[in-house]
Every structure is written in C-alpha cells, then in structure tokens.
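Minutes, project check-in
Item: structure for the 372-residue chain
Input as provided by the requester:
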Amino acid sequence: MGAAKNFTFICGADDFLVQRMGKERFAALAAEVTDEFSREVLSGFAGNVGEVETAVNRFRESVQTISMFGGKRVVWLKDVNFLADSITGRAESTLKLVEDLQEILAALNPDETAVLLTASPVDRRRSFPKWCEKNADFALVGGDGDGAGEAIAGVALAEAKSLGASFAPGAVELMLARIGANTRLVVEETRKLASFAAPTDVAAKEGTTITEAHVTELTPNVAEGDFFEAAEAFFSGDLKWTLGALHRHFFAGGDARPVIGALQNRNRILLQVRALIDAGEARIGPRGLDGLPRAATAYGARFTGATEKSSYNLFTQNPWYVGKLAGTAKLPTLRRLIDNQQEFITAFEEIIRRPHEQEEVLRDLAVRCLAG
C-alpha cells in the first residue's frame, strides 16, 4: 500500500463538476474534524497577479495555523483559476507564486492539516499539475475537455442513477441536444425528468425510466438544436400534426420567423444528407446515418468559412442529431427539398406583406408542401 498523500488536488475543464466533487471531498474530510473552527474554506480565484499573491499568502497562513484545541484542521483552497493558460496564469510573478504554493504543499503534515485544492481550468502542460499528479490524491474530472460531451452525458447518467432512475436509449442524447453542454442545467433537468417519470408507488421508483417521450414533452429547446414541434411535424409529412403544431405555436403568442428559421435549418441539413445518400457516400441505417465520418474526411475541407456549428455545414452537426433527423421519417427527394427552400422564401416574403396573418401564411405553406 502506497504512502499517504500530503493533500488532495481536484481539477478539470468544467468548474461545476470540479466544485461538485470538491464539496463531496471536503464534506468527507470535515467529518473527521469535530471542531467547526478548525475547518476553513479559502478562495483561490484571482483576476490579477496581486490577487494570486493574496490567495497564496492566506493559504500559507491558514495551513501554518495551529488548531485552538490541538486537533486536526482541514483547509479547502477552492475556485483556483491561476493555473490556467491565461494572461494571469502565464505571468512570471504567478509562476513564482505557484512554486511557493508547491513548497507549502510539499511541507504539509497530513496528520495535522488535511488540505484540499480544487482548480478549473488547469493547463496540465505546466510542471505544477504534473507534480500534483505524482504527489497528491489527484482527480481529473471530466477529462481535458475533448470528451466534454461524453463527460456531461456521464453526469446525467450518474444523476439519474442517484435518483433511482435511468435513461432509455436515445433519451439522454435528445436531452443534451435540446439543452446543450450546460452541466448545471443537465443536473436540474435530469432531476425534473426523473421526478416526472417516477411511478406513484414509492416502492417502484427504483425502476423509473426516462424516455424520449418524457424529454420531448418536458425539456425546452434552449440549445442550438432544431426541435421546434412544427419542424418535427412538417418533416414527418403529417399535415394534421403540422397544422395542430402551428395552431399551438401561434395560440401561445409565437411568431412565424423562428418557425421558418427552424424549417430552413432542418431543410439545409437534409439537403446535404440527401446529396450524400444519392451519391452513395452515406446511407440511412438502423442507428441513423452511416458513413458520415468518411464523408466528412472527403468533403469537410470544402466548407470554407463555415467551421462553427451551422446548418450550412453538415459536418459541424452532432452525428447523433443528424441521424435522428434523417431517420425519423422517409427522407424527401432532393427536388422536394429544393422546392421546400423556395416555399420558405415565398412564405417569408408573404409574411412581410401580411404581418397580421402569419398563421394563415404558414398553414398555406404546409398545405402546399404536404397535401400533394
């Protein structure tokens, strides 16, 4: 069994995940210290070099302070942000202060003072984080950021499990597509969905399953995803559903422009999908769109000037989302999709001429496109 570590160091790209694990670890450490005056929480947040110096000096004073009643102390230096690749983090004075911090940590006696550091973000190329990996009880939360989507999905799954619930296939992906990569929102949304999906029988709540239907009904579309009900209905080819969705949208005081925007964005993506399928570069399979990574390698470089997430560039979209769009109903022909774009332009021009008849304009659009 290895020697006990002098301190605990928790870091990661997502400050919420780091803070969450830090709270859990601090609670465990504080449980061993009965005297509340022997528990101290310090802020490591610094906007400039002067504040870094203040934080390090306060930390030094704290760990060198002897408990009033002679027992063990626990100190948490939280929200450390001067280990990042930032102007403050790169400053020579900051680097010297980080060296001082390392000396303080190396000299700790864990039997006298339990120390916890939480930091986000952290430039792990620097010597201090590497030293912490070897010398601390080290935890990297959520990876370095490249796998952020998987890490956030993991947060949702873990939160659901803690509530005695689970996600049905596709449900967690749908939730993330709707609300985006906001960890706090993911946690709260998971709690809401688990509560709604839970059976009334308390004994059966361990079997709660959050389905795509629950997400569709309860989760708002606050991310860049294209999940307006009217767009879903329109591209399913269901005229009755489309007219009903439009009525509900306008009855709630909605405007026509975001609906047209949603239709155009969805149509642009499907145009590109249809072109790849017709060219034999991709196909719709049981798991969505097969061949997208290969097509991205072949054609991705041609999308100059559209590298950010955009409906103009299919390869910037979430592959699961593209598969969801392409596989939910029979994919329209390329001619139908081109005609759709022209119909959307015509409807937009008509709304400018008839601003008080927006619902009628979109109802006419739906009938022209779907009734034939």
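Outcome recorded: The radius of gyration is 27 Å.
No further action items on this chain.
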